Amino acid sequence: MSVVICVYTEDRWADILAAVSSVREQSRPALETLLVVDHNQALLDRLAREYKEAGDVRVLANAGPRGLSAGRNTGIAASRGEVIAFLDDDAVAERDWLRHFAAGYADPRVMAVGGRTVPVWASGRRPAWFPEEFDWVVGCTYRGLPPGRVRVRNVLGGNASFRRTAFDAAGGFATGIGRDGDKRPLGCEETELCIRLTRAVPDAVLLIDDRAVIHHRVPAGRERFGYFRTRTYAEGLSKALVARSVGAGKGLESERRYATRVLPAGVARGLRDAVLARPGGAGRAGAIVAGVLTAAGGYVVGSVRARRGGATFCVAPVGRESK
Question: Whole-model pTM?
């Protein structure tokens, strides 16, 4: 198994070193760790010096356009493993992370295995108003996902793994849809890839195993409602692109269940807590409503842009680099 960590800023230097250390301490050792630097020469040079003598870590420059998707594709092409795992640059993996991933591939139909991502709040505790149903806003596993090892439509990109043959069949991550450094926090590139994969390989199985745990740092700026609002709006924009590509039926299949079952239950819990004078109950209920409305607004705007041809993305094949 190869592990790809995409990085872009020296502001996360300590986090990057911690992420690499967590991979090195796995109970099931990785074949290699690839650090893909997104168009930041100073960071590229600094990491190259840091890991100059490390035989298990390689430092690469993103060979594509700026952004997370192209960085991941660079890592896929350069990797040597038959399974490629992805870890966020501001997260650390628990010791058995790769072991649980590997166990999922005992079934030859399994093409992807994801894990559980736990938030580490900068303030030391979850903001009282922040609903667990929206932990995806900060890149973490949210309330509503089933527990255990279960089949899913898509894995979450910051804590995921794929067979190499998945990329042979479906191509790489789409550029123009996901994160691009410090610009608007878009997403959904892994959703689009997973839907494309199951279309290319109809009997493919995609799993989430909640024993494959990573701990993801949530900076103070992302604990604020302003970021919550911006991120939910951006999610709507991204979902519109995905729906335009794969159709609203498949592109919004999981979202419909989430919106009609998980979120109403979350609002009810928040209102109940408010009645019982528990901290943050009304705030959580209000945040859920606001998140739904903001995401819906982003989806409408994104759909109009997509129809007018103002928002596009592309998928390129990902092959192995020659060794």
Answer: 0.91
Per-residue three-class SS string for 157-170: CCEEEEEHHHHHHH
Burial 80-99 (b: 16+ CB within 10 A, else e): ebebbbbbbbbbbbbebbbb
Say whether 214 sits in a helix, a strand or coil. strand
What is the distance between the alpha carbons of residues 190 and 155, in angstroms, rounded to a whole number? 7
pLDDT band at 313 (very low <50, low <70, confident <90, very high): low
- In the chain, what's the furthest Cα-to-Cα distance? 64
Q: How far apart are CA 67 and CA 82, in angstroms?
A: 24
Place of tokens 């998140």: 291
pLDDT digits (tens, 9 = 90+) for 244-280: 766 655 546 677 778 888 999 999 999 999 999 999 9
Tell me the residue type at 70: A
User: What whole-number distance in Å separates Cα of residue 45 and Cα of residue 50?
Assistant: 9
The residue among 60, 8, 5, 69 whose CA lies nearest residue 315 is: 69
Contact 225, 287 (CB under 8 A): yes
For 95, 187, 199, 271, 305, the CA distances from 191, given in Å and listed in that order, are 27, 9, 13, 32, 20
- Mapped to the 3 state alphabet, what secondary structure does 226-284 carry? HHHHHHHHHHHHHHHHHHHHHCHHHHCHHHHHHHHHHHHHHHHHHHHHHHCCCCCHHHH
